[in-house]
Amino acid sequence: MATDRDAQEGWIQSIRQQKPQIFSELSVFLKAIDRLFIIENLSITDRDYPSRNFYDELLVVRDVILKIIALIEYLLPENEKNSYWFRKYAEQRFMSVSARDSLRDELYRQDSPEKGLLLLYDTFVNIKTLVFDLLKNQSITYISYKDIGDIISREIRENKYFNPFGKTITEEDKIENLMVSRTIRAINDGTVKKHISLIILSLFRIIRILKYVTTDVPDQAVLNRSIAILFLIRSELEELRRLFDIASSRIQNEGISDFLTGLSYQISMETKRVFSQELKDITKRTGQKRQRGRIENSAGIIKNFIEQTIIQVIQLFNPSLRGEEIFPTFVTKKQLSIKLREDISVMHSIVSAVLESSLTRDDLLGALRNYIHYFQSFTFRLLRYDDYEDFSAFIDEILKYLRISIKEKGTNRISIKFIERLNHFKIFLETVLRQISQREELQGEPVDEERIRAIMNQFFK
What we know:
By secondary structure, this protein is mainly α. The chain is 71% helix and 0% strand. The protein folds into three domains: 7-157; 178-326, no CATH class; 333-458, no CATH class.
């Protein structure tokens, strides 16, 4: 006769049908927590790891662990969760050594997906306790951080049913856009079709992972989990670049091969731009508002770049397919370049207005400050890698002058040092504008001076 336990076996199959998105999310966060312990992923500028405090990084780990536990508890039937905690209590208080051995053998056997999920739950419940105790010390050594990572990585990879690293292509990886899938199926060359399919699947996977980056909730734990997702995407971008390089070396068509080599280089530039600049030392607690802005900018840069890359690859085989047919909110490369040129022109006009005024005027300085904040929020992500660092340095310095003291003491005149830096910034803006105007997509596209004046005037109200 079947027992109640036997009747309950197989509950994961029905839950998979009811909550497929939760299984997908669990897989993403299991990969993300593993990637948190690859130190090169973390955008840390201090390379003296042995003497560095990894407290902030372990806070991110803690919040991802709590998320993983919450996802598993959401999947577990209530009776399974209650049974787990009852067995945990009984093991500690009442069981003999042989009974404990028997219970652990049962848990570790992994002869069903249900036991695999319970083992994963047990793993993260135990690790959570260790991490919380470590965080009480306020100082986390590199060795402690690395050892926790080794334990987590091993436990995930040894899980028979919930190891997200077991397959190159998973059931979540799919091309949902019909026109994109038709374009790939129509490729005649088998080698080209194989490599382009892998590349497109990887690109769409990154877009899917990006959906877990959340910045609209004022909760540090949510931001920490978004940081973890971005570090996972860094690993995904490295894998993507490797796929481009492999495809370029194996595809015989020289035009396609050269095109893929160029995209591989773009990936390396965008990766540097996001993780060496925008997300530099992002785990440091420097203020939630600033941190949220950097995360949002980074996600925007990556999303835009990935969408542009998908469209470029598909248009190589189907030139008539338009970007908005793949992504409804797609903005063309030309439109982005026009916006960048326009917004930098407005910045140049406001800086010029400040320099042309001999006396300090609150409306001018307020307009400059407000426009810089607008530019940081909406346009900064459109800058190319080579301009990003210098632009960021100028803006940080100017905001510092505006925040602290832009007037010389005892006078009503703008600080001489501030004027010098604004003049340098104005020259820099002119150089950047010349470079943008030389872009291929802007050839023959005039600057809308009337629109620039209208935008500028909005910031003087």
